[in-house]
Amino acid sequence: MDYNGAEIGSYTDNLIGTLLAIFGNVLVSISLTVQKYSHVKLAGTKEHRAFYRTKTWWSGFIFTCLGELANFVSYAFAPLAIVAPLNAVSVLTSSILGFIFLRERLKPKDFAKQYGLVFLGYILVIGGAYLLVSFGPNSHEKLIATNIVKHLVGWPVLLYLLLEIITFCLLLYFYKRRKANYLVIILLLVALLGSVTVLTVKAVSGMLVLTIEGTMQLNYPIFSVMFVCMVASAIFQAGFLSQACKLHDSSLVASVNYILSTFFAVLAGAVFYLEFSNEDILHICMFLLGSAVCFLGVFLITKTKKKARIFEPCVTLNMSNGVPTIHDKGPVIQPDYSGSFSYGTLVNNNGVAPAPLPVHLETPPLGPRTSDASQGHPAIKRD
Fold first, then answer.
1. Using alpha carbons only, how large is the chain's radius of gyration in Å?
2. What does the DSSP 8-state code read for residue 84?
3. What is the DSSP letter of 52?
4. Residue 171 and residue 169: Cα distance in Å, rounded?
5. Crossing angle for the helix pair 55-74 and 183-213, nearest 10 degrees?
6. Terminal alpha carbon distance of the chain
7. Using 50, 70 and 90 to split pLDDT, how confident is the model at 192?
8. How far is CA 133 from CA 16, 44, 286, in A?
9. Which of 77, 111, 54 is CA-nearest to residue 310?
10. DSSP secondary structure string, 269-282?
11. Is the pLDDT of residue 299 over 70?
12. Are 118 and 255 in contact (CB under 8 A)?
């Protein structure tokens, strides 16, 4: 194989990367549901035991590791433009798992009325994913260390990084100094960091795969640089995303974060790795159409989350793809209509007594009393 800057168009590589990304996202969604089930099951018993001592939780943790590993390796085989938008599969799987475990009996007419937009979102996500995979970049470059350095010192990448740094500093100034806690500002910070993360993830994953195949890449300094940047950007990215979820509605954060993070990830791949350099205008337009359809599908699924109560989103950072996604904590077991103690949405009234609220009562001031009154004798009127 010739790795000296040559792009190798391989349908097999793209197929392997796509299947690994889909499998990884599905497995991560399943693992989160399993872990939530472990928490809910433990909260429904009187047994005082830590969640990490249950076999169910550890099963979910193992599934998470396998899913993240599959996502990580997928970047070594497929372009960023194909793998990054497939995070929609995770949202789709989480919502479907919520329907499977949702304990709600509705008439078909009411069910269609309440969940119609959700199923429309399913169709749009599946159709959009098909379009972007079918019309995505076909060329894939074997990322050896020397090729990565050539990309990094090219003027398009340097200009892109300069503009990104300036934009990031301006947004950070408004967020920290001006207290501009707008959702768009916070998620733009997340997306800009995510574009750096996906670039470094693809480089690290590609060099690791080539090393396993027999071409040593780990002794180059660029590998250490990319690895440190990957970890650092991912950590700060998770912090900003957590702040967004604290300040704004989680369903809105899920859809806007997916759109912005995917957009900047695809843009970074196009600038850094020149993934669309050999594509014609028709393929690019169809790819953009597929991405837009996926965006709309994710928006519909997450928008109806509050009404449908399909899943409870929480922040989970995919280290493999660098795009923080909001996965579900699991299905809604029972609606929480009471004010009793509950874990998530599971009402637990077994053996739980309501705790008395502290009441602070002030003792009214006592007026001056006579010596007779102080001894408990009534005052006698003397003539």
1. 28
2. G
3. G
4. 5
5. 80
6. 126
7. very high
8. 12, 43, 10
9. 111
10. HHHHS-TTTT--HH
11. yes
12. no
pLDDT in the model for residue 131? 94
Q: What is the dihedral of CA 151, 155, 159, 161, to 10 degrees?
A: 20
Give the separation between CA 351 and CA 340, rounded to whole angstroms: 12
CA 223 – CA 231 distance, rounded (Å) = 12
Phi, psi dihedral angles at 342 (to 5 degrees): -145, 150
Which bin fits 274, alpha (ψ -120 to 50), beta or left (φ > 0)? left
Residue-level pLDDT at 31: 87
Report the residue count for the chain: 383
| DSSP codes, 146-168 | HHHHHHHTSHHHHHHHHHHHHHH
Q: Encoding tokens for residue 192?
A: 């800009």
CA distance 290 to 288: 5
Write down the residue that tokens 């990215």 correspond to: 237
Helix (H, G, I), strand (E, B) or coil at 102: coil
pLDDT confidence of residue 148:
92
Nearest alpha carbon to residue 346 among 33, 23, 39: 39
Helix (H) / strand (E) containing 139: strand 139-141
pTM: 0.75
Q: Are strands 342-343 and 346-347 parallel, antiparallel or unpaired?
A: antiparallel
